[in-house]
Amino acid sequence: MRSRRLVIVGSIVAASMATSVASAATADLSIATSKGVRSLGTSGSGLRGYQFNGRVVNPDFSVVLRDDTGQQVTGCLADGATIKLLRTKTRVEIGSASCSSTDGAFHIFPRGRIDSPTGLVATVTASVTLGRPVSATVSNAVGVLISPEITNRSPAYVRSRVYPIRGKVVTANPKQAGVVRLERKVGKSWRVARIKRLPKSGAFIFRVTKVGPYRVHFVARRNLGYVDSFLTLRVRRV
């Protein structure tokens, strides 16, 4: 499964930005794994894959920079140099850093949320830092797959035999990302009760009359960089 997802990661990273420029300096880009961030491994070409599960707040992008002599660069870059985090397809900058942290790495926390599949690279401008040359360089690429958060907006109680299961798939383009499927648990298996396409808002509603366990299953469209996600709940009669 991980190898297949790495293939999808590769497809969402633009080839023009995935390759490093010829440089004596090197920049190694990674994302810290934490709650909601899962590593998918590294491909043979050096591409790193990650999966964001639900709402990931302030993901930590880390760059380890080495100068032209191979020594790690720490502290602040000289000559106004900076490390920029760019989306590979649009080349839009979403964050930057010019000084390393105490662990020696340059940490970049992107502006805004990353809520759609994307590829990213770090670019480094040239400088002479601590008397050593640091040539301009581009890091390895990283690709991010998205397993969207499904919010539950169902009422706590209704005076009716019909219960509305309401919610929202939270991602940048839910209409294109996939569909939602309502599943009801029968015995040990989940059976499909209904399928709906998502509007641009990502909102959905299913009306049910039977009690028991249900789950809303976001079914991702293949090869777009989205991953299935689930919301489980139980309907009771009181």
Brief write-up:
The protein has two domains: about 150 residues, Immunoglobulin-like; about 90 residues, Macroglobulin (MG2) domain (Immunoglobulin-like), CATH 2.60.40.1930. The chain is about 10% helix and about 45% strand. The chain has three helices and 19 strands.
Order of helices and strands: HHEEEEEEEEEEEEEEHEEEEE
**What is the CATH topology classification name of the largest domain?**
Immunoglobulin-like
DSSP summary, beta strand count: 19
* CA-CA gap between termini: 42 Å
Task: Count up the domains.
Answer: 2
Q: In which range does the helix fraction lie?
A: under 10%
Q: Please, what is the average pLDDT? A: 91
Q: Percent of residues in beta strands? A: over 45%
CATH-defined architecture of the largest domain: Sandwich
Rounded to the nearest angstrom, the radius of gyration is 22 Å
What is the name of the CATH class of the largest domain? Mainly Beta
- Summarize the biggest pleated sheet: 7 strands, mixed
Structural class: mainly beta
Count of alpha and pi helical runs = 3
Keywords:
238 residues, mainly beta, Immunoglobulin-like, seven-stranded mixed beta sheet, four-stranded antiparallel beta sheet, 3 helices, 19 strands
